[in-house]
Write a structure and sequence with these properties.
CATH topology: Nucleoside Triphosphate Pyrophosphohydrolase
CATH architecture: Alpha-Beta Complex
CATH class: Alpha Beta
Helix content: 10-25%
Order of helices and strands: EHEHEHEEEEHEEEEEH
Distance between the termini: 36 Å
Strand content: 35-45%
Number of domains: 1
Largest sheet: 10 strands, mixed
Oligomer: single chain
């Protein structure tokens, strides 16, 4: 049974607050230190039904020049609440297989390798923290978001039965807003209105 990283909800909210419209511009290393020093691993099924915990999600948007990689989740995705929704985020739970130093970033790289194929090197830049308690999904998850820069067109979906992907202009993202899952709306709002990343320590 999959074991996922969780942190007491009160710790997350008291340290980083809530922001349902934009990314929380907290310091990257502070967030990583807090969650990694206060985390435990529990069965995913239990965590999904326990609002006293926040499951920690590694999440990233993939860009190439002025375009961003947009996906649509099919009905074969595990998370039924997100079926047919559009997304600019790739990622997932930090799991017990990632446990150790830099486990959140290890989880992100693992999820990237599982969900998409990136040919060649890529760079990764911290954007901020996602917390949105306005939805059923959001109430039990908190994400740390990065921007992944790839070479021109060098990204495609691996599990095509679960997701379909395409490149779209970042400037055109507002046209798709109604179809995006809530976390993607937060990332899109930030990229379109205030793209500068939070400062590192």
């Amino acid at each position: 049974m999959e074991q996922v990283m969780v942190v007491d909800k009160d710790i997350v909210l008291s340290r980083f607050g809530t922001n349902s419209e934009r990314l929380i511009r907290t310091d990257e290393q502070t967030f990583l230190q807090v969650v990694q020093s206060h985390c435990t691993f529990v069965a995913r099924a239990d965590a999904e039904n326990d609002p006293s915990y926040k499951q920690i999600i590694s999440y990233c948007a993939i860009v190439s020049g002025d375009r961003i990689f947009m996906t649509r989740r099919t009905k074969k995705q595990t998370e039924t609440r997100l079926h047919d929704r559009l997304s600019v985020g790739i990622g997932g739970h930090v799991a017990s297989v990632d446990e150790g130093a830099d486990m959140v970033l290890r989880g992100l790289r693992r999820e990237l390798e599982e969900e998409v194929s990136i040919r060649g090197d890529y760079t990764m830049r911290y954007l901020g923290v996602i917390n949105d308690d306005s939805t059923e999904v959001g109430r039990v998850h908190t994400g740390i978001c990065y921007l992944v820069q790839v070479a021109e067109g060098d990204c495609e979906v691996r599990e095509k039965e679960k997701m379909v992907g395409e490149w779209v202009a970042i400037a055109d993202l507002p046209l798709y807003m109604a179809g995006f899952e809530e976390w993607s709306k937060i990332v899109v709002n930030t990229l379109c209105q205030d793209p500068a990343p939070a400062d590192r320590a």
